[in-house]
Write a structure and sequence with these properties.
Blueprint: H1 31-45, E1 52-56, H2 62-67, E2 73-78, H3 81-90, E3 96-100, E4 112-117, H4 127-136, E5 138-149, H5 151-154, H6 173-180, E6 186-194, H7 196-206, H8 209-216, H9 219-226, E7 235-238, E8 247-253
């Protein structure tokens, strides 16, 4: 089994190993997933100017650092000791701190203007209780951003879930809305889709590109170049029909 570890970390920052539980930057083979998550963080960050923000289950810390480019104050919270130590050492800047703790219990600094909880609720055994708790940690007029993969595009057709061993439950768009809506006064549900070169690649696959590259024996060389070149601009968030979306983002207000 191939092991992937972060490359080119700053001096004194221990690299993290890719386990599948969380995505990481600086692993070329993981770049698609990293950029897919980063696109959502950047969209949220642009809406957090001057706010106090907590990034729950922040993992490696890259998302908290993006939020801190706009927010007045960001706290990244994660229970994993290796991820916490890595984030603390790598992403030092004014207005950004990292705390080690369970998101089910952590509440320091509440109330918060915004709570960010991305690609994690599918790991939670009691997600409804978690969402209600986030609502109680909000300041008046605050907002909670919660994302999850869309089961309809992640899992095989007709399956109840994908083969990701870390996921407790995966949701269709309607199931996700049914989960989130009872905890908040209003919920806007958006979907993440391919854009730019990923959209072009998607169309090419429908036209038989996978068979053509296999016949030419260029599959490995092509993807060795294509995957590291993906950027967050190759994804877009939008509303409308979400059945074919990659991920679902709930924007929740009390």
């Amino acid at each position: 089994m191939t092991t992937y570890v972060q490359r080119n970390q700053p001096s004194g920052v221990p690299p993290l190993e890719l386990t599948g539980e969380r995505t990481l930057p600086d692993v070329p083979e993981e770049n698609y997933w990293y950029r897919r998550h980063l696109a959502v963080y950047r969209w949220i960050a642009a809406r957090c100017g001057g706010l106090r923000v907590v990034d729950m289950a922040c993992g490696e810390g890259y998302g908290s650092a993006v939020l801190a480019e706009h927010a007045a104050e960001v706290t990244g919270v994660d229970a994993n000791p290796e991820a916490h130590e890595h984030a603390r050492l790598r992403y030092g800047r004014a207005g950004l701190r990292f705390e080690r703790g369970l998101v089910e219990e952590w509440h320091d600094g509440a109330p918060w203007d915004a709570i960010v909880f991305l690609q994690t609720i599918e790991h939670v055994t009691d997600p409804a209780a978690m969402l209600r708790r986030f609502g109680r940690l909000l300041s008046p007029g605050g907002v909670v951003y919660v994302s999850t993969p869309n089961r309809l595009t992640l899992a095989p057709a007709g399956a109840d879930r994908s083969d990701n061993p870390w996921h407790v439950r995966e949701y269709t768009p309607q199931e996700y809305l049914d989960l989130v809506a009872p905890a908040f006064g209003s919920v806007e549900l958006l979907g993440l889709f391919h854009a730019r070169k990923l959209r072009a690649h998607e169309l090419a696959l429908r036209l038989g590109w996978d068979r053509a590259q296999a016949g030419l024996r260029i599959t490995r060389p092509f993807y060795d170049r294509f995957v590291p070149a993906i950027s967050e601009r190759d994804f877009e968030l939008r509303g409308g029909s979400l059945e074919r979306s990659l991920d679902l983002l709930a924007v929740c207000r009390p």
